[in-house]
Amino acid sequence: MIEKIPLPSSGDHNAVALTAKNLTYLIGKKGVDAAAVCQATGLGIATFNSLRRGVGNPTLSTLMGLSNYFNVSVGELTEIDLSEKKLKRSSAKTIPLIKMSDLCMYLEQKHDKYDTYTTEIEETSAKGYFSILINNDSLYPGYSSGTVFIISKDDEPYDGDIVLIKIGTHRPCFRKIFINGDNFIFSSITLESDISPSIYKDYQMIGVVLKSIKTFSQR
Fold first, then answer.
1. What is the distance of C-alpha 30 from the center of its chain?
2. Would the pTM count as exceeding 0.85?
3. Structural domains of the chain in order of their starting residue, each with its CATH number
4. Domain HTH cro/C1-type: where (predicted)?
5. Which of 1, 59, 98, 139 minimizes the number of CB atoms within 10 Å of its CB?
6. What is the mean pLDDT of the chain?
7. How many CA atoms lie less than 13 Å away from 39 in the CB half-sphere?
C-alpha cells in the first residue's frame, strides 16, 4: 500500500519558497542559465525570475513545463528539497489529470481526452491512480481553485482520510471519513459548510485522497 502523506493546509506557502530553492538547484545541476530555461519552456524571463525569488503564483501549466524540462515530477519540484534528497526516478508516475467539472464523464468512461500529471507513486504501476484538478471554488477556503488531489481507486480508507464518493444520483464529492465500528460517518471537508456528519446507505466509494499538491492557480 502506498504511504499516506498528510494533506497540507491551505495557508501553507512553503511550496513557493521550496520551488524557488529547487529551481536554483536544478539550474546549477543542469549547467544552464535563466535565458536557456525560458527559451526551452516558453516562459517569460520576468515570470521565471519571480519564481526563483519565491514570489508569485505559478500556474499548473508553468510547473508542468518546468518539471518536464528538468526531468522531475511536479510533486518533486514543489514538495521535496531536491538538494538534500537523491530521488528514485522510478517513483515518478504519469497519471490522468481530470478537471472536477469533467469528473462524471471520466468515471463513466465518456471522457478519453485528458491531460496528465506526473507525481511520486511508489507502486510499480500507475494503474488505479488518477488526479483531480479543482477548477472551481466549491472547496474554498479549505482548497482553492488549482489544487490537485492524487486519488487511489484501490486503497482502503483509514479513519480521518478524505475520500471521493458518489452519494445516490448526485455528482461525486469529497468527504472526510470517520470509522465507527461497521459504520462510515462522512463529514464535509470545508469549514464553512452546513452539511452535518452523516451515515449514507446509498453511496459508492470511488477513491481515497493520498495527497494534495500545494495550491496554485489553474490558469
1. 26
2. no
3. 14-79 (1.10.260.40), 90-213 (2.10.109.10)
4. 40-77
5. 1
6. 82
7. 5
* Contact (Cβ atoms closer than 8 angstroms) between residue 97 and residue 116: yes
Whether pLDDT at 33 is above 50? yes
The pairing of strands 92-99 and 129-133 is parallel
Q: Is the pLDDT of residue 96 over 70?
A: yes
CA atoms within 13 A on the CB side of 211: 12
Residue 106: CB atoms within 10 Å? 17
Residue 163's pLDDT is what? 96
Give the C-alpha distances (Å, rounded to integers) separating 156 from 151, 190, 208: 12, 23, 7
CA–CA gap between residue 101 and residue 161 (Å, rounded) = 23
> Which carries the bigger pLDDT value, residue 183 or residue 7?
183
Contact of 105 with 113, CB cutoff 8 Å: no
Model confidence pLDDT, tens digit, residues 139-168:
877 788 888 899 999 999 999 999 999 999
CA dist., res. 143 & res. 98, Å (int)? 16
Q: Which three cell numbers stand for residue 24?
A: 536554483
Cβ neighbours, 10 Å, residue 94: 14
Closest CA to 77 of 149, 16, 124, 36: 16
CA–CA distance, 146 with 179 (Å, rounded to integer): 30
Burial class (CB within 10 angstroms; exposed 0-12, middle 13-18, buried 19+) of 31? exposed
